Amino acid sequence: MFKIFIFVIVLMLFVGCISKKNTIQFKGIYQSSKIDDYYFYLRFYENDTVIETSSTGKPRHLKNWFNKNKESISKGKYYLKNDSLFFETKSDYGIILYKGCFKNGKLLLKHYSKINQHKSLNVYSFKKINFR
Questions:
Q1: What is the mean pLDDT of each run of 10 residues along the chain (132 residues)?
Q2: Measured on CA atoms in the order 38, 39, 40, 44, is the torsion positive or negative?
């Protein structure tokens, strides 16, 4: 009985660790729910870089220009600590701070803008995109 219990615990840990549902995904972008006719978009890179923009366009419209090499894009570095995700993005206008976590396949993020002191909570869904 004890061996079965240990096996189930190890299996649960293993399955939880390989689940892509609650980890950062890199082969696409994260899209917020629509806010005042805009979507907020995030793109994460495996080298800890994150970029951010807002647009009225759909994910496919960002495919050709939303990348870390674009000069005017907001960008920063992210890190994970325990179950939380932290980062800030910097643009010519200022800095926005982010803190959040993954839950049920969604990215929940609190924002704080040092530009205008605006605070919000947004829910992001991952959208797979083939960037070339």
A1: 45 42 88 92 96 93 92 94 94 96 94 96 94 76
A2: negative
